[in-house]
Amino acid sequence: MGDDSEWMKLPTDEKVQHKVWKARLAGYEEAIKLFKSIDDEKSPEFSKFAPFVRKFVVDSNAVAQEKAMEATVVYVEKAAVATKVAHEVTQGIVTKCLSASKQKTKEYGKEIIMLYIEAEKQDVVSEVVIEGWTNKNPKVVAASVQVMKEALRDFGNKIVQIKPMVKFLPKLLEDRDKNVRDEAKGLVVEMYRWVGAAIKPKLVDFKPVQVAELEAEFEKLAGEKPHQARFLRSQQDLKAKMEEKAAMAEAGVDEEEEDEEAGEDVDPYDLLEPVNILAALPKDYYDKIEAKKWQERREALEAVQKLCENPKIEPGDHGALVKTLMKVVGKDSNVMLVVLGGKCLASLAMGLRNKFSPYAAQCIQVYIEKFKEKKPMVVTALRDAIDAAYLSISLEPLIEDLVAALENKNPSIKAETALFLARAFSRLTLSSLPKKQLKVFCAGLLKTINDTVPDVREASYQALGTAMKVVTEKNIMIYMADTDSIKMQKIKDCCEKAVLLNAKGEPRAGGAAKPKPQGSEPKPVTRPGAPPPVARPKTAPGKASTGGPPKTKRPGTAKPRVAGKKSGPKKPAGQPAEERTEKILSDEAIAEKAAEFIGAEVLAQLEQANWKERLAGTETLVTNLRRMTRDMIPCQVCIRTIIKKPGIKDNNFQVLKLKVELVAYLAKNADFTRVSADYCLPDLVEKVGDVKNGAGVQEALSCIAEACGLDYVAGTVMKLAFGQKNPKNQSEALNWLTKAITEFGLKVQIKQHIQNIKTAFAATNPAIRQSALSLLPVLYLHMGQQLRMFFEDEKPALLQQIDAEFEKVKGQKPPAPVRGMKPTDDEDEEDEADGGRDEEDSPVDLIPRNDVGDRFSGDLIESLSDKNWKVRGEGLQKIIAILNEAKFITGNLGSLPEAIKTRLGDANKILVTTTIGICVTLATNLGPHCKAHVKVIGPALISCLADMKPALRSTALGALNAWVDNTTLTPLVECEALSDALKLENPNLRQELLGWLTERLPAHKPLPRDEMRLCVPHLLSCLEDRNAEVRKKAQEALVPFMIHTGYESVFKATNKLKPASKDQIMQIIEKAKDNLPAKQPKKKAAPAKSSAAPPPVDDYDEEPARSAPPTKEKSPSAEPPEKVPAKGAKKTKGKAAPASSSRKKVEEDVGPPLTVNEPKEKRFKDEKNMKCLKWNFKDPKPEYVEQLRTQMERNFSKTMIDILFHTDFKSHTKAIETLLKCVESLHEEQLANLDLILKWFSLRFFDTNPSMLNKALDYLQQLFKLLSDADYQLHEYEANSFIPYLVIKVGENKDNVRRDVRGIFKQLYHIYPASKMYVFIADGVKSKNSKTRTECLEELGYLIETYGISICQPTPQVALKQVAGQIGDQDNKVRNAALNTTVIAHQILGDNLFKYIGTLRDKDQSYLDERIKRTKSKPAPAAGRSQSRERPKSVPNAPPQSQRANSQPEIQRPGTGIPKSQSSSAVPREYRIEIQDDSNKENFQMPKLYQCDGLDDILQDVQMPVLKARPPSPGPKFLSNADTSSTVSFVISQITNRDMSVCIQALAQIDEVFKDSDKVSVMEDHVEQLLVAMSMQFKMAYSTHMGDDETPKDEVIRLYRCLFGTLVALFQNSVLACHASKEILKELMYNLLTLLLDQRLNDLEEGPQVVRSVNVLVVKIVERSDQTNVLCALIRLIQECVDSQTCSNKFIELIMKCLWKMVRMLPDTIKELNLDRVLYDLHVFLRAFPSSTWKERANDLPLRTIKTILHSLVKLKGSKILQHLGQIDASEASEVKIYIQRLLQKEGHNLDAEVNGTNDENKTPRSTSKSKRLSKSTHDMLTEIFKKVGSKEYTKEGLRDLYEFKKKYPEADMDPFLKKTSQYFQNYIERGLHALEMEETQGGESQVDAGRPASDRYLQRATQLRENLGQDSNKQQISNVPVEDANAAPYFREKLRMLRAQCGLDPNTASKESSTEMISALTQEPEISPRDSSLEEGRDSVSDDISSSKDFSGDGPASKSAAKFTDVESLKARLERIKQMANS
Fold first, then answer.
1. Distance (Å, rounded) from C-alpha 975 to C-alpha 1133?
2. Do the beta carbons of residue 937 and residue 901 sit within 8 Å?
3. Are 1163 and 1237 in contact (CB under 8 A)?
4. Residue 1583 carries which DSSP code?
5. What mean pLDDT, rounded, does the chain reach?
6. DSSP code, position 1514
7. What is the pLDDT of residue 1136?
8. What is the distance, to the nearest Å, from the Cα of residue 1262 to the centroid of all Cα atoms in its chain?
9. Could you tell me if 1188 and 1107 are in contact, meaning their C-beta atoms sit under 8 angstroms apart?
10. CA-CA distance, 1911 to 860, in Å (whole number)?
11. Residues in a beta bridge with 889
């Protein structure tokens, strides 16, 4: 008892581990109770027991073990952590429990295993249990097999995989223990239940006796379908579904078999073990296969054949083996070996399956060539081989080879190729045989059906027939329009015989295009709908109703197709989007469901003989149905209940009306299928002629047509109606059809209704004939005159009536459909572009046509070329006779079109007229088949328009109309017939053709844009034609041409005109532009839109520049025409011209144009290892082009390669358009192939075509914008292969090209270091092209101005000397550019510049001195205006390309020389103002953008800003070889090792590199790699090492120290520190700040030291990194933290403190910042978290921090900050823009108020007093005065006269004069008058100068203020400091500046000491104290005080105006306030 009392006191977790079994037993019992009481599966209690559960199951005591097993069951059921010990627990169960003596223990063990499977640990469980099969204890083996059998039985083969068990079966079945054998046998039987025959191939490994036993067991399971009994936890929805299904089955409700899981076949191939045949190949195979003796080759092949017979072969590199076998098949002369090689390849393909695809295409080429062998044994082997190879590949890569084989001269190759296509088609479906492929193959096969060899023809028939069966007849007929009836019949016969196969090679059910699941079919159920006698469907017994409804052939209905396939053929007319189907229920099921749904009482009422009872029952039923939703109504049950006798044949019209309305309601509001329609349509048709309810019946038919499709309903109704003898029903059925087509549109197959109409015409009842006659006009509206063709054989009287009906609706358009379902498939754009007509009512399918090709014999054609015109005339008459006899003919005309073309140019005009008549007949007889010949005959007809005789020209126009009416203008445009004709300077031809096109073009569908643009230059030449009629017609044709080509195409074509005529023609074009039709909304296009020409409305935008792509960064006013070049390319003339564009579309790849098969890193490595040519050349040599093509072929589609490397520039333009479409969609692919793309464009820079070049530059701009947005950094190899060639193009003759290239330079600075860009651009200065030198020098100036003098490479001395050397260039523009750049450097360096550039020639030195002198004296605003005049395209709001205009306001632009005003006027420059420019308000946006930062800026001495030179860039980098780089990379990779010692060693090695100044340069290319590795180690240390109790914390601290030391060493090196990108810095800062908040460090002895080290390191990173990257990283990091729900406030505070630190550094770092990127990241933050959303947050400090950054940037940059908003979308309402504009406007308003000497209370007199009207004399006097003021020479005199005038006429009204001027000019006058007044009152002399620089004005104001302060100093005292001692205002001002600097308000004035104090404060305090937030508040308030101090005036008169600036009390108050904030 004493022992018991000891363990009884123990807790449960200790009891279960106790040595005493009783204690463990008690512990297990307590654990069971504990586990059951816990509801939370993630409870810590479960985690506490996790280590013990694995020991539960192996308890040594049997009693305790049983209880332990029970506890484990509960634990596994309830605990989420149980899965972590699944392996150990299952292992223990297998070894200890399954063979236990206690039955309950065994059961618990099995249950635990099943529970683990439910917990989705089936893989672990299967592995452990299958390991038990190898146990030596047979009991364990038998039990393990039994467990797997039960698991497979309960869960199925999808969860419990069969494959791992199969290899153990032979051994288990041969085990000496009978129980093991029996269990194994049961396992095999269970496998058969689930996978069926797939297991049988494994039976070959069993003994025959075992096989026989198993086969017997298999037979017992025939027809049994297994079902999953237990489910995974993730399958609970499936479990509920199965339970519901079982419940319904018990209730007797039959449901469709939706559970396909059990019936899903398993491929036996998947259960087989692969065999490695490469390892088993004979060692001498490759020698023997090349042996000369055929016996040796046979031995080698036999060995391979034996190996390849393995059904599953292990994948590997079989290329060498396949190559030898192909060689045998293709070239061996021994037939036996060819057969043997073919068998080997076939077996190899079958064994590898899809892994054979790399070799399949090459093998098939060999097989096709070898088909020339005629021996049957060879042909048979080749057929098997090609079929086996085809299983691993699609038809797409074989198209070219197969088409070429069909054109081979050898008939055997053609026949076998066609047979192969037939077999290939049989495995395809409608979706896998796209129209593009089908069109190509049909074209080839249609040629071979005319072959002279019968075998070829039969094989072609078979291939076409199989294709027809796959895609249906309708879809293939569009490609077989010209096939004669005999051949078509043979194709249809082959179609009926064709057998389609499924993926397994088995015949499909029904042979349709879409396979249907096989299964036991129920007894056939005949649907109603057949012609009378109408029989009711005999329903099958209840059990047989599980299948689908049987198919009934309904004439006129199309086979259902797969919906949603965009590229497939259109759906049958009138068919719903997806035909709803349902099975036919048995009568018993209907009765049962009707009783349940409708109710027995209502059913009884419906069957009553009393009509009132039936009426009441029907009303009740209607009422009940109206209350239900669509899903609740069982439609079939209701319909079949309604039609039960008396049903719809009810004699009472009231009941009948209600039932008909009920049917219509069900059709509208229930799932009404064709099954329901088949039951009710016969009865409805019988009542369609009912006098009282006929209208209701017709409405019900229309409702059914909406539900089931008009085509189906109309066909059924017409068959039923004309199968009756009731004329009334026939007449009303026709009337209903007329009404339905009017409402639905022509959504019926008209062919089946034509015969009914003819039958109706033959009826004796006049009502029927009249109804049929009324139907024809409706059809005529849709079909036109072609409808009459069907009634040509009718009697003349009837034809007269028909024509009369047609005449009534002639010219009308069919009404828009108002009913019917919308088709889901859009119009096939490709067919529309080709002018194809695949509608079912097209005459192509309906009119029987005659093939007259054979009748145009060779003799007849030769007679047309006879020299005797009479013979030629007789030949033409014979042709007329043939055509008149045949009437409707096919497109087969033999050689007739060419002969007709020749005769149209006959010298005998009578014969020409006769030939034109033949052309008209041909157009009528051919119909749409004209399309095949219009490219031959059309141009010849156009040439007839040049004839002198008007009658002949009129006849030719009629023929042209006939041909175009049957086709379109597209073929004529594609073959360039129109452009060629307009090119001829024949006035008759031009005026007739232009007049005809004016009529045809406006209403024509979009024509090929590229070919139409070829006509534009000739059209413009017609505008200058000598003939007045031609000019008139050309003007009339302008608008129609613009509709199809766009205004910009016509505009661009004018650039080639002579200057003398361009202006006149432009007036005509502009006038025509105003007459363009209004722009229509675009049609909704599919995502995968084809490359057909878009609608013309997209082209004639009102402003060409607006139609440019939105990503294009150009000013709208920079260039009038649209910058987008024409899409596509012009067609070349020659033999290839007739080829249509649709043909090209067929040959295009359907896959993506770009892929990532080979990474670019491999290409970089090859180039580095000199495995390929280095991309460096002056002219592209063929070897470079070929190398690039080879590299691109791996990642680009074949079509893209063809057009990329085509010799024609038009193909290059098409390639660039394709790349433009892929910019967004294939973003990753373009990045992966960026080096190849840039290399290709570098080749294009050597081409001369301007349109292609413009398109290339457009693409590059979009590409680099995308790269910039993604923060992509250009690789060195990418840059070196592209930028040097881009620099060459900067010297292009065309301005737009140079402007675009400069814009690309600006974009490159975002993705490639500007210092490296400097080197490339500096190389351009060495060019021989003066334009290149000019542009490069300007760009160098921009770089120096933007980035400072340190940007110069290799050193500033070398770079500036190179620039200065260009001052002596002969070209004036080069000299100016060099001078400008040198002056920019002088602004930075001052006179030290001359030390850099050395000694210049005297002449060059004088140029430079003059330019520097002129620049110093030039005021900023005037310079800005001068510059804007000199370069008008650089507008203030221009995009980044024109920002240079504002960035260099003081630099003379190239080409301007000395300003005109300097030499033409003696007036000093500061007095010159150009009044005419003052009217332009845009020119005066600059003055109001000057920043006045309150009192400090006014009181201190103002000096001209001087740009500080940044420290010189480091010296040249040490180049490291490949070994050094790879070694460094390896060492860095060791930093991420989990072993801390390895990491520390790697860091030590890196530190050694940092210490050596000679070696440190090798780290430049590895900085980011190093930072990523260290970030990962920080994460690992924080999350793993610090949380691991077993890891010594001293080691972790040591690791931290090493990491910190390496980071400090890295960031101490300014060159290396700048290599860290934004994303890397963001991740690094995140990890460091996370570490800073790690509370676990506080528990360590050296933890505080770690925190201090992190603090120092963070400051170091902030100070030494690239300022743009670190600032953007912190902004992005704070954005992510604000967005995160888990981020702590402490973490956000640390980030904000870093940002505040950077704000304080901004004055020193502002020049280093890329403000475009900073402002964009600020924009992204405010877009994600707008200011309006912060009201709901508790702390808005992050928002205020962001706005503080913005405020500081605006203060430092002023108005120039507006130039850095280029990355923010202009169309977006950015809060950043709004905030900046508000700040600038606020500052600008204060500035105006001070400069003008006015304020809100004291405005100009003219605003407060009423002025007197002027007399005539005073008005003239004032006019002359204002002229003087506005002139440059007499401005001062004018102001003086104006002042005297105001004194003389104080009430004079000057508003009429001032209103016409700008605000700036008004302010100028007011300031001048005020100055004159002050001069007069004080007696001093004032400078009346409104145009002097702002710095001079501020200096004067400051001097005046100081004087005023000195005058008032004896009246005021501030803080007890006597003013008379040291002028109190300067003293307090200086003190105020210091305090403000400490608060971060004005960093510019902070001393070095205060800066040091701030940095140290940040370093010592990593946490943000509460006062920091108040500090920010104080800063805001002080900033507001400063900015809001608008006026300082008192209430005294003007004499006291000086005192208004000396409000010392205000200064004192502000000083005290700031002191309090600083000390708080």
1. 8
2. yes
3. no
4. I
5. 75
6. P
7. 37
8. 14
9. no
10. 121
11. 850
